[in-house]
Design goal:
The complex is a heterotrimer of chains A (about 300), B (about 190) and C (about 675).
Chain A (H helix, E strand, L loop, with lengths): L5 E6 L3 H5 L1 H13 L2 E5 L9 H7 L1 H17 L4 E3 L2 H16 L1 H12 L11 E3 H6 L5 H7 L9 E4 L3 H4 L15 H7 L4 E3 L14 H4 L1 H18 L3 E4 L2 H18 L7 E3 H8 L17 H7 L1
Helix pairs in contact in A: 2-14, 3-4, 4-5, 4-6, 5-6, 12-13
Chain B lengths: L9 H6 L13 H10 L11 H5 L10 H10 L2 H5 L12 H5 L6 H14 L5 H13 L7 H9 L16 H10 L2 H12 L1
Helix pairs in contact in B: 2-7, 4-7, 8-10, 8-11
Chain C lengths: L11 E6 L11 H9 L4 E7 L5 H14 L3 E6 L2 H14 L7 E5 L1 H5 L6 H19 L8 E4 L3 E5 L3 H12 L3 E5 L14 E2 L4 E2 H14 L3 E4 L2 E9 L2 E8 L7 H6 L12 H5 L3 E3 L8 E3 L1 E2 L11 E2 L9 H6 L12 E7 L1 E4 L3 E3 L16 E3 H8 L20 E8 L16 H15 L4 E6 L9 H11 L2 E4 L2 E6 L6 E7 L4 E7 L1 E6 L1 E3 L3 H8 L26 E3 L9 H21 L1 E4 L4 E3 L9 H5 L5 E6 L2 E6 L9 H5 L5 E3 L4 H12 L5
Parallel strand pairs in C: 1-2, 1-3, 3-4, 6-7, 6-18, 7-10, 18-29, 20-27, 21-22, 21-27, 22-23
Antiparallel strand pairs in C: 5-30, 8-9, 11-12, 12-17, 13-14, 15-16, 19-28, 24-25, 25-26, 31-34, 32-33
Helix pairs in contact in C: 1-5, 2-3, 5-18, 6-7, 6-15, 11-12, 12-13
The chains are: A alpha/beta (about 300), B mainly alpha (about 190), C alpha/beta (about 675).
Chain lengths: ~300, ~190, ~675
């Protein structure tokens, strides 16, 4: 343990550790480089998936998410996470239970059965917002950590929905045309590019990817067209589920619709890892469905 | 009540089905249930269409979130719960962000889905996620190819979750069983076979 | 009044009102009346359908004379509504009107406890018992008359303020018209045309501006703000800050002994001024100099120096030459005027619509507000009346109008109310571009078209006939084509039930309106309340829409709530009429709720003098002793001194300590003595 000043219980979720493990490895290493230690949150589960569980029974969603928060409470730590879907579940349920006694009592009745109690002592953060927060890391410190600037790379930012929206239940300000993630990208020496309808959904959420894949992909396709229109070397996001939708989605889009884009999809932590000097192997970029090679050629 | 047409030609009876809205055909309690579960004052919708205009699903389908709000207010429970469009919301929350009435149409849709599930109306993929979590703690569980990749990265084959610590699984199952979620998921999936 | 009062044996009459079913619908009026009969000192109790009706009032008057009553209690509505009525009835019966006490069993009872009849009835009995306890201790009071200064003040020089000032002055009342900007004219002077008649706004406004300027009865004080207010109806002392203008008028020049001097509005100074700033009158779309007039029709035609921008190079002083009108060392000046009544006509501002991020105002070049549209379509505006796209100067052929932009918005970002004139001016805008730009199509995105005024619905018909396209759907968001700077307006056509992505050349946001930045400060100076949304509160929404709860202060125009020009002018005339009444009567009666010093108990410590928020108290020498004296006309009966006096030497008329204690006892002891 490096003993950094800022320490968080690291909530992994499902898709990062089980499909894109490079994101997990990158998150731990890159955070350490900018002064954040991510400690294992032992026994955490699926957040659980807000679309699937929220649609079936919101009470189960509350209870399951609360269990994950309680694990961090028991460590006396705040949670940091790397997925917008997880953020929706863990941040929002934590927030709701802190402010709604009736909900909290209902959840605690269930948690009692497994000797747990939600106390409301932990806060939940997305790593990306910790990176942006000058009190924790800040854009300058991020830039200082860069060993290999991503100079010349034009990168589209996909914020994803569940991090920022609904805006009134979050704290990110403008949800229509935010620019803070562009600042994070620029800090790495890359050029963030604006494209049409940048805040549009990736299409995967709400169970739609499983329910009607073509429908979900058609939304993804619209975003890819808008990115291609302005010419990008890669798209970055902070949500492994969005990543899956853009990355594997491009293969599925080719199969179903015939369109081909070849736009590499990189989680911000993967991008940060590259900029801090991690090798593509250390990030398992070969697991990506869309080859990251053209992007690597541009920056290496 | 809608006029029942017992025409001997079934096709004609369907073609000429009474389309009028009759108050007795509606359930005034439905909107209250939606509001309780969704925690939003759905009855305050003034039908401006900001939601549909914001919706990424609307331009590529017949899904109209505004109409779901309208039907909920009118108590057209049957029409709502049996409409396959109900499951096309990606929960992007753009409508909620922009709704000038400060409502959360997304959460109203989630509430309607919850009510549909109570009547066993639910797409199979939602239930499969439940089964996976019951079994492994993860909606998207680990696999051998991934384990190999993790090791390559210097990570342990199993992440620090229920995968590495299966002793946490009984607690998770207890929560799911409390709501009889697994039982219902198994039953509905089996019935659908 | 040097000793504690002695009372005659109280004989109280109680009258309970049904108010139709307003009260009787949830309160058992008969039971309350029967209960009143059991109370000490109650000689007679009665009930009636409408106590405020003539037969109801007669019951009171007759009972007073027949039963020799010493006090009257009416259990009915709010004293705000009918206290004057029942005081008159009390007087008609031969009693001093201040022998009357009201128990509110409607607003504070039956209306709020509609579904709890038993509890409501019990609460009504409590209210009657408390009122009887006080009525038993009431005393005769004589209202005080004070003279009214034969002058009025109007704050705000827009069309409402100008109309009010003209009416007052024409009625023979000396009127001070105070305007914070360098010219009168207000918002209306920024408009191109007015709906539904399509009159040129400036053309109908400038004659009024000239009338105001020329009127002998109006003292026009532009570039002036209200600094402090003291006094009360009939005798307001208003301190004004005349902001340093840096330019003197011919009259001021003459007073300084400069023959033939003072500003003539020639503009030589502005020609040489090297400092360029955006002109706020043109919403920053045109430049002005550091010494400036807003536009050629300003009134008064006097230049003003923007001292925040001025570099004091002195070129203007040279250019002005022998007129010697420019004084770059000018300082703010203060003056105090005495007026009998005041009209607030504070106007409105445009809600900062960039706060609604989804429409991209200030982010996308070709998204403008309706007020900017007015300037762009106006022949005297920055483009000479040619509507052009800010991005490239091209004439737009497809223009979207976004109604309810920030109005009818419950998110906490926009405004919950309807701004009331946006539908109509947007229809007018559609007409104007159809008239000026061949082949143009206006698209009006609306939720409801509110065309409620005289000839308004007909105007709607006309504009639809002229070719405007109406889309019933609120605009969800706007995106910009990065290359063409065209805009994509996203909405749902709710009548089709289809999402719509309309590419247009320009978007005009009919932004909500809000109270001006200064409204809050000004209303506090005059002691006027406001409603939750910040608009000033009228005395009664239906029956006293021009008055306020502060006697002698009246409201005109949008500062009271969104309204269009005809409604503003109508309210201004109403306010002028109301404000002239006390002045023409020459005196006003003040409620006799004064503090009274019981001199034998007063130690002359003077602590109360500093406590008084109205400077109504002073220490005086009387028979060799120092005692406190009240200036009754200044006293508002707030009770601060009475509660504070360490010796209990201050008697608050009508709210005296024994009266209040009797009320508290009556409540707490449940009628048991």
């Amino acid at each position: 343990m490096s003993g950094n000043k800022h320490q968080y219980a690291f909530f992994l979720g499902c898709i990062a550790p089980n499909r894109y493990p490079g994101i997990e490895a990158a998150a731990i290493q890159t955070s350490k480089n900018v002064g954040i230690d991510l400690l294992p949150l032992k026994g955490a589960s699926c957040c659980p998936a807000p679309g699937a569980f929220g649609s079936i029974d919101l009470n189960v969603w509350y209870a399951m998410a609360a269990r994950n928060v309680v694990l961090a409470e028991q460590m006396k730590m705040d949670i940091a996470l790397i997925c917008n879907g997880c953020y929706k579940s863990i941040y929002e349920v934590n927030h709701k239970l802190k402010h709604n006694d009736e909900l909290r009592d209902g959840v605690n009745e269930v948690l009692k059965e497994i000797d747990m109690e939600f106390k409301g002592t932990a806060d939940v953060w997305h790593l990306a917002e910790l990176y942006y927060d000058p009190k924790i890391v800040g854009v300058k410190k991020l830039a200082d950590s860069v060993k290999r600037p991503l100079a010349g790379a034009k990168i589209a930012v996909h914020y994803g929905c569940h991090l920022m929206k609904p805006g009134k239940e979050r704290h990110f300000g403008d949800t229509e045309n935010p620019m803070w993630m562009e600042e994070l990208v620029a800090a790495l020496g890359a050029e963030p590019v604006q494209y049409r309808n940048k805040m549009q959904c990736c299409g995967a959420g709400g169970g739609v990817r499983g329910y009607d894949l073509a429908h979900a992909l058609d939304i993804t396709n619209e975003k890819l067209i808008n990115m291609q229109e302005v010419g990008v070397d890669a798209v970055t996001e902070v949500c492994p589920f969005c990543q899956l939708q853009f990355d594997r989605g491009q293969i599925e889009i080719k199969e179903k619709f015939g369109a081909e884009y070849g736009i590499p999809v990189l989680h911000y932590n993967e991008l940060l890892g590259l900029a801090q000097g991690m090798s593509p192997d250390e990030l398992a970029l070969d697991l990506h469905a869309i080859s990251v090679e053209p992007f690597l050629k541009k920056i290496l | 009540m809608a006029v029942k047409k017992d025409y001997k030609d079934q096709k004609l009876a369907e073609k000429l089905r009474d389309r009028k809205y009759y108050i007795p055909d509606s359930n005034p309690e439905f909107i209250k249930d939606v509001e309780k579960i969704g925690q939003t004052a759905a009855h305050m919708c003034y039908q401006c269409g900001t939601c549909t205009g914001s919706c990424p699903s609307a331009p590529r389908s017949s899904y109209r979130i505004r109409l779901f709000m309208r039907k909920a207010i009118l108590g057209l429970e049957e029409e709502i719960l049996t409409d396959p469009d109900l499951w096309l919301c990606t929960t992007c929350y753009s409508c909620t962000d922009r709704c000038p009435r400060d409502l959360a149409p997304t959460d109203a849709i989630m509430a309607m889905r919850n009510l549909a599930f109570k009547r066993d109306i639910v797409p199979r993929n939602f239930l499969q996620t439940v089964q996976l979590i019951y079994k492994t703690g993860h909606g998207v569980p680990n696999n051998d190819a991934n384990r190999a990749a993790r090791k390559r990265l210097g990570l342990e084959a199993e992440p620090e979750t229920t995968h590495k610590y299966p002793e946490y699984l009984p607690g998770i199952r207890r929560i799911l069983d409390h709501y009889r979620l697994k039982e219902n998921a198994d039953r509905i999936l089996a019935e659908g076979e | 009044m040097a000793e504690v009062k002695k009372y005659e044996e109280p004989r109280i009459g109680v009258f309970v009102c049904h108010c139709g079913t307003n009260i009787a619908g949830s309160i058992d009026v008969k039971a309350v009346m029967e209960y009143a009969r059991t109370l000490p000192n109650v000689i007679v109790a009665d009930d009636y359908q409408y106590m405020c009706s003539t037969p109801g009032q007669n019951k009171i008057a007759e009972a007073i004379s027949e039963q020799k009553l010493t006090g009257v209690v009416v259990a009915a509505c709010s004293p705000r509504l009918h206290e004057p009525t029942f005081r008159n009835a009390t007087k008609a019966g031969g009693l001093n009107p201040f022998r009357f006490e009201m128990a509110n069993i409607r607003e504070q009872n039956s209306w709020v406890h509609m579904h709890q009849p038993e509890e409501a009835t019990s609460k009504a009995k409590d209210a009657v018992r408390i009122a009887v306890a006080k009525a038993s201790l009431l005393e005769d009071l004589i209202p005080k008359s004070v003279p009214v200064e034969k002058a009025a003040m109007v704050v705000g020089g827009g069309v409402g303020g100008m109309q009010a000032a003209l009416d007052l002055a024409n009625a023979g009342i000396k009127t001070y018209l105070v305007e914070k900007t360098p010219s009168i004219g207000g918002r209306m002077s920024q408009l191109d045309k007015t709906f539904p008649t399509l009159d040129c706004s400036q053309c109908i406004l400038t004659p009024k501006m000239v009338d105001v300027y020329r009127h002998e009865g109006i003292e026009l004080l532009t570039y002036t703000e209200v600094e402090a207010v003291e006094g009360y109806i009939g005798n307001f002392d208003v301190t004004l800050r005349k902001k340093a203008r840096g330019v003197i008028t011919p009259a001021e020049a003459e007073a300084r002994g400069i023959v033939g001097g003072g500003c003539t509005g020639c503009g030589d100074c502005a020609t040489v001024c090297p400092v360029i700033k955006p002109n706020p009158f043109e919403l920053g779309m045109a430049p002005r100099k550091a010494i400036y007039i807003y536009h050629p029709q300003v009134s008064p035609l006097i230049y003003t120096v923007d001292f925040d921008a001025c570099v004091k190079c002195g070129l203007c002083v040279e250019a002005c030459d022998t007129k010697q009108a420019v004084d770059l060392e000018a300082k703010d000046e203060f003056m105090t005027v005495k007026v009998g009544t005041v009209i607030l006509a504070l106007g409105y501002d445009i809600f900062p619509i960039e706060k609604k991020f989804e429409w991209g105002y200030k982010n996308y070049d070709n998204v403008i507000t309706s007020l900017e549209f007015e300037r762009l379509i106006c022949a005297s505006g920055p483009t000479g009346g040619h509507l052009i796209r800010p991005s490239d100067g091209a004439t737009p052929k497809r223009v979207a109008f976004v109604l309810c932009a920030g109005s009818r918005d419950n998110t906490g970002v926009g405004k919950p109310y309807c701004s009331r004139f946006c539908c109509m001016y947007s229809l007018k805008h559609a007409h104007q571009i159809i008239e000026k730009i061949p082949g143009v199509v206006p698209y009006i995105f609306y939720m409801d078209i509110r065309s409620f005024g005289k000839m308004y619905e007909e105007f709607y018909y006309r504009i639809q006939d002229e070719g405007a396209k109406f889309i019933r759907g609120r605009v969800a968001n706007i995106t910009q084509d990065p290359v063409t700077k065209n805009l994509h307006v996203n909405a749902e056509d709710t009548l089709l039930g289809r999402p719509i992505d309309m590419e247009v050349d320009m978007v005009v946001l009919a932004a909500a309106i809000e109270p001006t930045a200064e409204t809050e400060k000004t209303r506090r100076l005059f002691g006027v309340s406001c409603s939750q949304d910040g608009w000033l509160l009228e005395a009664h929404p239906k029956l006293n829409p021009c008055g306020t709860t502060t006697a002698g202060v009246y409201l005109a125009g949008v500062c009271q709530g969104p309204k269009d020009i005809p409604d503003t002018v109508a309210q201004a005339e109403g306010a002028a009429s109301a404000a002239s009444i006390p002045i023409h009567r020459g005196e006003v009666e003040l409620e006799p709720y004064f503090a009274v010093c019981m001199e034998d108990k007063c130690a002359g410590c003077g602590l109360c003098v500093n406590q008084c928020p109205y400077q109504a108290l002073a220490l005086v020498e009387k028979e060799g002793r120092t005692v406190m004296q009240v200036t009754e006309a200044k006293c508002k009966g707030c009770g601060t001194c009475g509660g504070f006096c360490p010796g209990g030497a201050i008697w608050m008329q009508h709210f005296a300590t024994p009266q209040i204690i009797a009320q508290i006892d009556a409540f707490l002891l449940g009628g048991e003595q």
